[in-house]
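Support reply, case 0932

Customer input (verbatim):
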Amino acid sequence: MAYRQAIALLSRKPYPLGIYISTANSIPVLRAIEEKNLLGEVQIIATDLFPELVPYIESGRILATLYQRPFTQGKTALEILVRYLLDGVTPELHTRLAPHIILRSNLALFASYITEGADTPSLSEK
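Our regenerated output:
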């Protein structure tokens, strides 16, 4: 679905000069952009971080990706639940976590996130 929608979008004249891919469907969208020979011409920002995305970031074909920190999201939710169940602390209505912005220049800091599943740099990486 994402691939077909991207092909349709890129077939328009004029085609967009920038695309934000807000789901984990970035690979099908990137494939469509490649097939239209627009990779590098269309500026791309993606969401999430996974092994298939790394070469696109390393080569500069993707400007950035917004990493939503899934490990920290789960950890925070569990901590809030434990505080509520054990101590009766009512949680705030909203808990916000800032995403990490991953660029080619800081990609190496996030390499362990892909393989280890954590999303907070270890002390040796800070």
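We compared this against your earlier run and they match. Two observations from our side: The mean pLDDT is 88. The radius of gyration is 18 Å. Please reopen the case if you see a mismatch on your end.
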